[in-house]
Amino acid sequence: MRKKLLAGNWKMNLAWNEAMTLFANIVSESKPYLDKVDIAVFPPSIYQRQCFEFAKQNKSAVIVGAQDCSAQNGGAFTGEVSAQMLRSIGVSHCLVGHSERREYHHEGSRMLSEKVERLLEVGLIPVFCCGESLQDRDNDNQTFVIDNQLDGRIFELNAELFSKVVIAYEPVWAIGTGRTATAEQAQDMHEFIRGLVQSKYGAEIAQNLRILYGGSMNESNAAELLNQPDVDGGLIGGASLKLDAFISIIKAAAL
Ligand code: 13P
Q1: Whole-angstrom Cα Rg for the chain
Q2: If you take atom 2 of ligand 1, which residue's CA is the nearest one?
Q3: Residue to mutate (ligand 1; options 5, 9, 94, 130; most atoms within 8 A of CB)
Q4: Could you tell me the distance, in angstroms and rounded to a whole number, from the CA of residue 245 to the centre of ligand 1?
Q5: How many structural domains does the chain have?
Q6: What tens digit of pLDDT does each residue of 9-55 get?
Q7: Residue 191 sits in a domain of what CATH number?
Q8: Per-residue pLDDT averaged across 137-144, rounded?
Q9: How many angstroms separate the Cα of 109 from the Cα of each of 106, 133, 186, 222?
Q10: Which of 49, 122, 127, 157 is most buried, taking the most CB atoms under 10 A from its CB?
Q11: Contact 212, 253 (CB under 8 A)
Q12: What is the mean predicted confidence (pLDDT) over 99-103?
């Protein structure tokens, strides 16, 4: 039985005091649910260390993740943050291949593979994002696109390393648009992804893989999405910035 993972991707939002207040409230209000579900917050990089320390001091299992890391190990790469640095401050998960980074930072498949490798080398868990554009969905090309985003990228990993990865399916047309995938569309794609993983790595790894849905998940649609057999949690943007909405989604997953 896969434990659901609810992850809040704060993106580039919140001033420091707002971020710390929200994080403290998430830590206190998520307490009753942490035995049933895993909860993660992906704050902007400069807040990660303090969030981790706060969770630790409060003996909370809320996970602190990073939104990005460098494809390099270290050295003369101004502005970059390495996987090793993330690990040294207590970060345990890192998003890779979010559609906003693919689009605005031109991150291609080779770079994404390198980031996954850097993370796994130091024991961090990559949350590998994939998702099709509206045009691809309208042309019924979504499975082709997802297959292509996974094949030859994270599917290059050996079985032992792949078994550490989390996949997030985030249709680009549903991110920040208020237009969520229907529960059926999400289930169909998650089932398709699990099938790809099964044919590559076998049934046990496929059954243990967590596949998160992301794209306008909120307190109204979360229960139906999270009820689908292959939806193992959510990667939540806008709604994770609102305490009540995020906690409602966590509650829906914990039922
Ligand atoms: P929204 O929940 O705001 O649509 O964002 C989803 C997302 O991109 C999470 O990574």
Answers
A1: 17
A2: 237
A3: 9
A4: 13
A5: 1
A6: 999 999 999 999 999 999 999 999 999 999 999 999 999 999 999 99
A7: 3.20.20.70
A8: 95
A9: 10, 16, 23, 30
A10: 127
A11: no
A12: 95
